[in-house]
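Quick start: read one record
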Amino acid sequence: MEYKNLLERKVKLETELQTLVQGYISKKTIKGKTYCYLQNRVGGKLISQYLKSEEVDEITEQIARRKQYEVELPKLKARLNELEQAARLLGKHISRRLMLLKLSTGMDSLSAEQKRQSSSFAGAMNAIEGIPVSEHTAQEIAAWQNGNKPFISIFEATLKRYGFFAEV
C-alpha cells in the first residue's frame, strides 16, 4: 500500500535526520596546509569544529544525505496529505484505516529500550486515569516488546475490544 510505504519512509527520514550532522564544511589554508571545519549555527552563534582528515568524507556524506532528506520530506508529506484527502472523499472507513496506520507506523521500529519506555509511560498514564491494563493487553504489549507481534494488530484489537468497531 502506497500510504503505508510513504509513512514508513517518512518515519525513517525523520529518525535519521535527528542523527545526521548539521552545517557545512569550510576549508582554511594555513601555512600551505588545508584544514577542514564543520560549521553550523547554534542559537545564532557560528560554531566551528575541527575535522580530522579521516572524518571529512563521512561528514560530507552525512551533509549530502541531510540535504537530500530535507528535500524529500516535504514531498512525502504532501503526497501523504493528498492520499488522506482522497480517503476522506472515498469514505470514513478508508480515512479511519489510514489514521490507524498513521498512529501506529514506526512503533515496530523502536528499540527495545524505547518500547519499554513507551509501555512504562502508557502504564503510568493508565494508572493516573485509574484504568487498569487488562492481563490480555499486558500480554499483547509484552509480545510486541519482544518483537513477536506487530503494534498495529494490538492497537486495532484494543480499539475493537473497547467498542470502537466503527472507528477502524
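The mean pLDDT is 91.
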